[in-house]
Specification:
Length: 564
């Protein structure tokens, strides 16, 4: 075979694989948009129960059709402190099982005896008119139908490209098959490298099925390529974890560890597994001779078995693995240990539903940190230890810098998201999130102003009288209650207005307390009980606290869908 001919054949194969990935991406986006709030609520059901977490990963990956997207999302959640490592480990195991659903669909509909055009072209005919519908659900269904039809057509192109390969070009298989360990490593590496290049284990699986169909490789070697593809799909999460903290890195390493453990038991047992599965299929297909019609399902069952059995083997050892990962991956610095919000975009293309879910959770985490500053101000009033005061002030200033950066990143991220055509519902939610992050950033600025007030108080050695201190603390107590209500609201589905009356009552109580402290302030100056420096610091402090309460209320309103 001429080198130029081989080049065009390889180019055709990669073109078909690129079309497969594009079709899968379009189909995945359509599914996610159709799933909508159901996808968000499913991801929200994460618990410490490892079995529930596994089913969460399985269901969400079945919807999204991408274990890489789910694993990267989980790395980001653990990095941000939204979920714990043990929860994430369960989701990762479930995601590995869930991703096999793509292989089942591809095998059932893409490798049939009839022409793929019989199914794919009518799907395009049905989907195209829906693309111009005014309803978001119709356009999402269109994306699913067209994406899936492109995926099926890409398999047809791939099958047409492979027969042109001179099978002598793969004769190296015969040369290394006598060395079992060498051939195993070669085909595992082949599956790994293909998945690394294509960023899709499903695309590698499709190529492996085509090679089996054309008898370019044996079923055992195909099984080894599936092992390599499973390991290769973990690379995306590990890339995302490069800029994550120690917590996020542990999740990515577990994803790799899961598939390596799977390879350790699966490779030695592969020949036996093929015999068992073959005998099982023959028991339901009496009289059928061994051929691709059976081999394709053997390969799919092996793919499913790899993930299911590995999950069953690992489940009892999750606590031990969690402890080992925590000892293995130690934080290099205090900053690395602390949950942070240093990045939002994980580098994996997400649909609006997944993107907004990630932003919402990160904003909620930032709101929790903002609420924690309220207690820090209370501690500043209680302590006279200069070292403790300086430590608290530094923490508040650090949070203010984080909120500035967070607002900038969230705004950029949501701006990129809105560059594409999005639904009216998504557009409204983007507006609410932008409003909330803006209020959180403003609250951070107000807390920073409070640190400047305390700087002057400490430097000038200004002390509050008991009635001043008690007045500020009672105002902080009301603000803490308002903060807790805000966080509770943000942890639940947006659009709820049932807690708004409570939020209004708390904001009114904060305003009344501000008014009473203002009267105390004026009375203290008139009577001479307060010196002028103490009075000014006192006035600035209760004014700042009241302004924080205003923005906490605005966050509650925005979350409920009321934009002021």
């Amino acid at each position: 075979m001429k080198s130029m001919d081989l080049f065009f054949i390889v180019l055709k194969c990669f073109g078909a694989l690129a079309l497969f990935i594009y079709g899968m991406k379009t189909m995945s986006e359509g599914i996610q948009k159709l799933a909508g709030k159901n996808l968000r609520s499913t991801l929200n059901r994460l618990t410490n129960n490892r079995v529930t977490s596994i089913f969460t990963g399985l269901l969400t990956t079945g919807l999204v059709q991408s274990s890489s997207a789910i694993s990267v999302l989980v790395v980001g959640f653990v990095h941000a402190g939204i979920i714990k490592l043990r929860q994430a480990m369960g989701v990762i195991m479930g995601a590995n099982i869930g991703t096999t659903s793509t292989a089942v669909l591809v095998t059932a509909l893409g490798f049939t005896n009839y022409s793929i055009n019989t199914l794919a072209l009518p799907m395009v005919a049905l989907g195209l008119p829906l693309l111009f519908s005014k309803k978001d659900s119709h356009r999402s269904l269109s994306s699913f139908l067209i994406g899936f039809s492109i995926l099926l057509l890409s398999i047809e192109f791939l099958r047409d490209a492979i027969p042109g390969i001179d099978l002598d070009a793969v004769s190296f298989v015969e040369n290394i098959s006598s060395a079992w360990w060498l051939s195993s490593i070669a085909f595992i590496l082949t599956g790994f490298i293909l998945t690394l290049l294509l960023q899709s284990s499903s695309a590698t699986m499709a190529l492996t099925l085509v090679l089996c169909e054309q008898e370019a490789i044996t079923l055992e070697f195909a099984g080894l390529m599936v092992v390599g593809a499973n390991i290769g799909t973990t690379i995306t999460a590990n890339i995302a974890a490069v800029i994550a903290n120690a917590h996020g890195k542990r999740v990515a390493r577990f994803h790799s560890l899961f598939n390596i453990i799977g390879a350790l038991w699966f490779v030695p047992a592969l020949a036996w597994m093929i015999r068992v599965v073959t005998n099982g299929i023959h028991s339901f297909n009496l009289g059928m001779e061994m051929g691709f019609e059976i081999e394709k399902w053997i390969l799919v069952i092996l793919h499913i078995s790899f993930n299911v059995i590995t999950t069953l083997l690992i489940i009892p050892f999750v606590p031990a693995l969690e402890s080992w990962l925590e000892k293995w991956i130690q934080p290099k610095t205090a900053k690395d240990e602390k949950y942070s919000l240093e990045y939002i975009d994980s580098g994996v293309m997400k649909t609006p539903e997944l993107a907004l879910l990630e932003v919402t959770r990160e904003i909620t985490k930032l709101a929790k940190e903002s609420a924690a500053n309220c207690k820090k101000v209370s501690r500043l009033l209680e302590t006279t230890d200069r070292a403790i005061q300086e430590e608290i002030l530094a923490e508040i200033r650090q949070h203010e810098a984080a909120t500035d950066k967070a607002e900038e990143e969230v705004t950029k991220y949501l701006s990129r998201l809105t560059e594409d055509v999005i639904s009216n519902e998504t557009s409204l939610k983007v507006g609410r999130l932008l409003s909330i992050i803006n209020d959180i950033e403003t609250i951070g600025d107000l807390y920073y102003q409070i640190t400047k007030i305390f700087d002057r108080k400490i430097e000038k050695e200004i002390y509050f009288l008991p009635n001043q201190r008690d007045g500020i603390k009672s105002m902080i107590d009301l603000l803490e209650e308002a903060n807790q209500l805000m966080i509770n609201n943000m942890l639940h589905q947006e659009g709820r207005t049932d807690n708004l009356e409570h939020a209004y009552r708390l904001e009114s109580a904060i305003n009344k307390k501000r008014n009473s402290l203002r009267k105390l302030h004026l009375k203290g100056i008139e009577s001479g009980d307060f010196n002028i420096k103490s009075a000014m610091v006192f006035s600035e402090l209760y004014t700042s606290i009241e302004r924080i309460g205003d923005h906490v209320l605005k966050i509650n309103e925005a979350h409920a869908g009321i934009m002021s």
